[in-house]
Write a structure and sequence with these properties.
11 helices, 5-stranded mixed beta sheet, Aminopeptidase i, Domain 2, 29% helix, alpha/beta
Length: 434
């Protein structure tokens, strides 16, 4: 069954990624899939009284969805899979209109640790959200996406940089990354007017925006036998989608877990998670506590801590596949293969939250799902990245394991992973919930 769903999962993932050029669209797409499966949206400002059922909460670029089992009692544990919706990219500055040499450009700021060279010479669209003046509410939010080649960051010709292939490409974020989008002298208000016209807004009603650039190349299977999935934002929409798919599998199954099954998709992981909708904020803890109170009827702090003691978190973020052209950059005894199954990530300095207990917990989930798994550590003399795992473990004090699918070109505008791995991870996550 697991092998049968693997390639289809990759195709479904491609559809999800292409529908999600920004964190706001990733949440909208996730919410649409949840509602199609019978999940009910809860508003944080309402009072909750929860029967057994399927629910979700969304805020800006973050979403938490969960299933309350029948006869949920005080002390009920939670199985939560955490991922993130944001990816490194270029974001439009508040004073967007700039330009020189007869070329109109947009001022952009680099968000997260983007591989800058990967954004050069690509057809780029725009997406995000705007805040619009509203007579009744004061302001309202409008999501937008323009999947058309509006922008481009042109690279300097080799004739003007003869040493680029011997000394390398050096890009300055301020001077070299501003995209061009028109000809003419710099025009004040050009970007604002463009948004108002394209979105059908009243002139002067645009109050602000969270706007970002995205690559327009569609996600697709590649390779001689379609062994790979090439796509933007695999880090970390792959984990977000697979976690969501596993939750929907649980929702459709007659073999319902006796614990609360939960998926938490956070924004802002790429810039440290310290925000109202990031993993370092109160969002997850608050929703877990409210869910337990509303579903068990107990407001006792003791019961909340009993539930945390019975809970497990799976932090899902992408992992570094072994690069065939840079073997020396990897730990030689922990090489990772694409399509080799879920990766359990371990770091002695706690950049990942995995310990032997949580490692075995997820390993057994893989074994029950009949999927292979791999274990990874960073090369000792190189700095190790981090995820939401350690943040969640420190905030909630629950057992946490860090896992991911192996990929290449992490933080590029276009990344690649094995086409079977998302389906294999989906199967393991389904067993994690159980």
């Amino acid at each position: 069954m697991i092998l049968a769903m693997t390639k289809q999962t990759a195709l479904d993932l491609a559809t999800y990624i292409d529908a999600s050029p920004s964190p706001y669209h990733a949440v909208l797409e996730a919410a649409a899939r949840l509602e199609a499966a019978g999940f009910t949206r809860l508003r944080e400002s309402d009072s909750w009284g929860l029967d057994a059922g399927k629910y979700y909460v969304s805020r800006d670029g973050s979403l938490v969805a969960f299933i309350v089992p029948e006869d949920c009692k005080p002390g009920c544990g939670v199985r939560v899979i955490g991922a993130h919706t944001d990816s490194p990219n270029l974001r439009v500055k508040p004073n967007a209109n700039t330009g020189r040499a007869g070329v109109r450009q947009l001022g952009v700021e680099v968000y997260g640790g983007a591989l800058l060279n990967s954004w050069l010479d690509r057809d780029l669209g725009l997406s995000g959200r705007v805040m619009v003046a509203d007579e009744d509410a004061g302001q309202r939010e409008v999501a937008f996406r323009f999947d058309e080649p509006l922008l481009r960051v042109p690279q300097l010709a080799i004739h003007l940089d003869r040493e680029i292939n011997t000394k390398g490409l050096l890009l300055n974020k301020q001077r070299h990354m501003a995209p061009m989008w028109s000809l003419g002298d710099r025009e004040d208000g050009g970007f604002e007017q463009f948004l108002e016209e394209r979105l059908g807004l009243e002139p002067g009603s645009l109050l602000g925006w969270d706007a970002m650039l995205h690559d327009l190349t569609p996600s697709r299977l590649i390779g001689r036998d379609e062994e790979f999935l090439a796509a933007p934002r695999l880090d970390n929409l792959c984990s977000s989608f697979v976690a969501l798919a596993a939750l929907l599998d649980v929702a459709a199954s007659e073999d319902a877990p006796q614990t609360i099954s939960m998926v938490a998709l956070f924004d802002h992981e790429e810039v440290g998670s310290e925000s109202a909708t990031g993993a370092a904020g109160p969002l997850l803890e608050t929703i877990i506590e409210r869910t337990l109170i509303a579903s068990t009827g107990s407001e006792a702090r003791e019961d909340f801590h009993r539930s945390l003691g019975a809970s497990v978190c799976c932090s899902a973020d992408m992992a570094h596949a072994t690069h065939p052209n840079y073997m020396e950059m990897h730990e030689p005894d922990h090489l990772l293969a694409m399509n080799g199954g879920p990766v359990i990530k371990i770091n002695a300095n706690l950049r990942y939250a995995t310990n032997s207990a949580s490692e075995v917990f997820f390993q057994r989930a893989c074994e029950r799902a009949d999927v292979p798994y791999q274990k990874w550590v960073n090369r000792t003399d190189l700095a190790c990245g981090s995820t939401i795992g350690s943040i969640t473990a420190a905030k909630l004090g629950i057992m946490t394991v860090d896992v991911g699918c192996a990929q290449l070109s992490m933080h590029s505008a276009r990344e690649v992973c094995g086409s079977l791995d998302p389906g294999l991870m989906r199967g393991a996550m389904g067993e994690f919930f159980r």
